[in-house]
C-alpha cells in the first residue's frame, strides 16, 4: 500500500520568480551559451519561456487586482440591495437590484415563514427589470402561506400566477388545496380537488390525496378520510407508505387501535409499500402512550425482526412510555443502550427524562438533568420549563418556581399559553393565590392571551379553597374567550 511518504508529487516544482531574478549571472551566462539554455540543477530553462512566464505572471497579477475590485463592487452593491429590501422601498434604481440578493432574501423569508415580509420582497422582485414570471416561486409562496394559515393570500397569489401566464399544473393546484385544508376550509379544498380531476394535465396524485387526508385527520374528520380513500380507489391511485403512515399515526393518537391495526395489515398487503421507521415509531407511540407497554415491546421486536432499525425518535418514544408507566429500570436500560451505541441526546430526550423524574417526584435527578442539559449547550424549551413548574407545584416548592422565572428573565425562551397555564395550576395547587393572579399580568406583558383552560384552572383552585366569590368573578370570562379550533396535538418527539 502506498504511503504519504512514498507518494511522488505529480507536478513539477513551482518556478520562483524572485529566486530567478537573484540569479543574474546565471541568466547572463545563458545568453552567451551557444545552445541558448542554462543547465543548472539538472533542469533546462528556455529564456523565451522564462519571458513568457514572467509576462503571464504580470497579467495574472493585474487580473487578480481587477477581480478584487469587482468583488468589492459586487459586495457593496449586494449590501445596498439588502438595505433597500429591508426598507421595503428604496431609491429610483430599486428596479435594478441584484437578482441573487433579492432571491436570497425571498428564500430566507419563506424558510422562516415570515409571510408578510416575504410578500413585500416578492412585490419588489416583480418590479425588477429582469423579472420573469416563475411558477416555482409562486408555488413556494403558496405553500408557505398555507403553513402560515393564510389561505386567502394563497388564493390571491394563485390568481396572480394565472394572470401572469405561468403554467398551472398539478403542483400548483396541490399547493392551493393544501393551503385551504390546513386552515380547515375543506369545502374549498374539495372544490380544488374536483377541479383538478376535470383539468387536463392536473390530475391529483397520491401526494395530493395524502395532504388532504392528513388535514382531515388533524381535526378528527374520519368520515372525510374514508371518502377520500374510496375516491382514490375510484381514480386508480394506490396509497403509498406516507399515506399509510399518516393514517396509522392519526388512528394511534385517537386511540382507534382496531383501525390502526387494520391499516397496518392493509399496508403489509400492498406491493412496494414497505413499513419503515416512521411506521414503527407511530405504532410504538400509540401503544406506549396508552400504557400498553407489553404490546409496545412486542411491536418493537417485530419491527426489528423485519429489519427496521430504530432512530433517536424511537428511543425518545420508549423513554417517554417507560417514564409515564413508572418503569425506571427499563428507562435506564434504554439510556444505557443509547450511550453504548452513541446516540446523542436531543432536547426532546432531555425533555422526556426531565418530565419523567419530575412526575416521580425525584427533584434531585430532575434538576441534575436540567443542569446537564444547559452544560451541553442545549437550550431549554417551553416543554422543559413546564415539566419543572409542574414538578415543583406537585411538591409544594414555590421558591423553586421563582428560580425558574428568574431563569426565564435571563434567557430568550419564547413562552406560550401552555406554560402560563402550568404556572397557574402550580400556584393554585399550593394556594399561592396572589402569585396565581399575577400570572395574568405576566401573560399580558408577554403578549400572551389567556384561554378557557387558564380561567377554568383558576376557578378550580378558588373553589377547592372555598373562595366562591373569586370563582364567580372569573366564570363570566370563560364564555368570552374564543374557542380554539380543535387540532390533534403534535407530540414533543
Overview of the molecule:
By secondary structure, the chain is mainly α. Among the domains are: about 15-80, no CATH class; about 395-493. Helices cover about 70% and strands about 0% of the residues. The chain has 25 helices and 2 strands. The protein has helices at about 15-20, 25-30, 45-85, 100-110, 115-125, 135-145, 150-165, 170-180, 185-195, 205-220, 220-235, 240-255, 255-270, 275-290, 295-305, 310-325, 330-340, 345-360, 365-375, 380-395, 400-410, 415-430, 435-445, 450-465, 470-480; strands at about 35-40, 45. Strands 1-2 form a two-stranded antiparallel sheet. The two termini are about 50 Å apart.
Q: For the terminal residues, how far apart are their CA atoms?
A: 48 Å
Count of DSSP H/I helices: 25
Main sheet makeup: 2 strands, antiparallel
**From the structure provided, what is the oligomeric state, counting identical versus distinct chains?**
single chain
Structural class: mainly alpha
Mean pLDDT equals 84
User: Strand-residue fraction?
Assistant: under 5%
**Strand arrangement in the largest pleated sheet:** 1-2
Order of helices and strands: HHEEHHHHHHHHHHHHHHHHHHHHHHH
Helix content: 55-70%
Rg calculated over all Cα atoms:
33 Å
Instruction: Return residue spans where pLDDT drops below 50 for at least 5 consecutive residues.
Output: 1-45, 89-93, 484-490
Number of DSSP strands?
2
State the shape: globular
Keywords: Coiled coil, Repeat
InterPro entries: PPR_rpt, TPR-like_helical_dom_sf
Family: Belongs to the PPR family. P subfamily.
Coiled coil: 45-72
